[in-house]
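> run fold Sugar ABC transporter permease
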Amino acid sequence: MAVSAGETSGAKPDVTAAGSPTPGRGAGRRWFGSLRAWLLIAPVLVALGVVIGYPVVRAFVMSFQKDQGLDPATGMFVEGGSAGWTNYTHWLWQECPTISGGVASCPPGTLGSQFWSAVGVTLFFTVVTVALEVVIGLGMAIVMGKTFKGRALLRAAVLIPWAIPTAVTARLWEFMFAYDGVINRVFGTSILWTSDEWPARFAVIIADVWKTTPFMALLILAGLQMIPQDVYEAARVDGASAWQRFLHITLPLVKPALMVAILFRTMDALRMYDLPAILTLDNDATRTVSMLVVDQIRQGPNSASALSTITFVMIFIVAFALVKVLGANAVRTQEDQRKGAR
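> ok
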């Protein structure tokens, strides 16, 4: 019987089993699938680049340019030219130009001298308001998650403060915190809530907590509704108390939603502008970084761009710390919980 050369040498035939694709064909399909996915998301990427990417890059470029100034010879406005890192040192080191052409510490009362105080006020508002909103919002979410008559009406009523525009909220609390307003009349006090240093700060905190706590409660409530009731029933059968069920079941399982709520609210609080700007007007005790940026725009957009870039970096660092250090990554937290349950 005749035997072919390929069979005698032990070489394998260059064909695959019926119905199984060749490796080259599988790689081609994967490449085509990736290309199709990129084509589908390309319009969104272009839109994000135009709406978000260009303003960020433009602001960063402007931050290295001097603002327009008066030419001593002609008395007319001229382009400032390259500024190097001057706009950044103006804020970080609080250095202001002098008449002789040098730099010196910014005089008290100028915008440059208020940078670090504005950063402190912003961080103070963020820490206090977010902490209060988490505690109150968690309690509200637990109450709204229970089954009782009128629950739908309660949920709708709770969202009313969050639905009111911030400018309207600020004006509402401004009337209440007035010298002859509701707060002083009810408590029999004569506090200048919008003028004194610490009363003005507490007024902003109270108004912000009243407005944004429903947002926290809504996000936490969504996480509570994902917890199976069978877990609570099993804990009751095992004799766990209400506090033990809250500590060992509710908190660990609601952590993904809670961390996302903290992340979103923290980033929002770091950009706080309209509430203190309207409620306390030009009170330096409540001046946030965003208010400083708006005030600087009226004097020079390039220096304001540098301050905006610093604010962006500050918010990015805080968000990175929350995601990486505190574990505010909801997807990773849920994966860890599933692995632990196996």
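The first strand starts at residue 69 and ends at 70.
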